[in-house]
Write a structure and sequence with these properties.
With about 400 residues, the protein is α/β, with parallel strands linked by helices. The protein contains 13 helices and 14 strands. It starts with 8 loop residues before the first helix and ends with a helix. It catalyses: L-aspartate + 2-oxoglutarate = oxaloacetate + L-glutamate.
Amino acid sequence: MSFAESLSPRSLHAPESGIVEVVNYARGRDGLIPLWVGEGDLPTPDFIARAASEALLRGETFYTWQRGIPELRAALSRYYARRFGANLPAEHFYVVGSGMQAIKLAIEALVSPGDDMVYLTPAWPNFAAAAELSGANPIAVTLDFTGGRWQVDLDRIEAAITPKTRVLFVNTPSNPTGWTATREDLKNLLEIARRHDLWIMADEIYALYHYAGGRAPSFLDVMEEGDKVVFVNSFSKNWSMTGWRVGWIVAPPEIGQVLENLVQYSTSGVPQFLQQGAIVALDEGDAFLQANIDKATKNRDVFCDALIATNRVETLKPDGALYAFLKIDGVTDSRRTAIDIVDRTNVGLAPGTAFGPGGELFMRACFLRDPAQVAEAADRLARYIAAR
């Protein structure tokens, strides 16, 4: 028996990332414009990094609060009051080691092996993989793509729910599609969850990247006391902190001890000096965040306008998030096309095959980068599309 054959079936079933496959194929090429992963090109700003560095030098390197240091949980409470108009005391917040860990721990808390988790697709592949690694069954419900825009089909969601369903996972604004639920959509989704006694897991990481102005609608706007909603989020996108691996969960205090226990048996907490930087991001980072939003807004327009002008890209400008999810005429295998685009244009895109059912014919581009690079990438891609 080989080493691999002796591993657990669950671990062997963990899929290779279709995004990372393309990244590894082209990593390090001279002149490459990388639009494949979901992050900007700016490092963490100095005022945030300095707060963490100073805490590190002060010796804040010991075991710490499993739920997050009180100062950070209080800062999260202030942030939600300011940005969401929500009165959530600090005991609703749980600091974890990245948005990805927030998703994994929330799934561990809400589902048992054999349970179903319904989610909307195309979707970031880690949602389904995290459910599978926890022994749950991810049930994909495809969004409708009509006239260049994405919409949710409530009847399709209802039809996917069975007695085994425990969670409805909703990512809005969506990675990769940019679909952004309206307030009415959220009310309807919440009503479905109430009717079937489901938890909603809400990934609202891109809530402030909303191109109609202001933040996107949130479940916090429509939920009532007693609704079973858990939020997962991250510092990564707003404040250029992807490499920090710090995220948070918003959940009823009643399940706080369960979440603390899951943190204990995974990472045993987030380093305290990193949490000090996170506090500064929340309290002093609005100007930096707004600059990121402004850059994303301008880049979205430049990038999408150039490609739509080819008359061979069906996708319209996304309503939210950081991605153009492009449906290009003639693309039938987005994985193969992503490799071809790298070779012919030196632009890195993520293949839609990485994002599950409904994504096979699409290509994802992250436009939170230097405007000159985004404009150059759009020009290269437009010429590539015109020559197909």
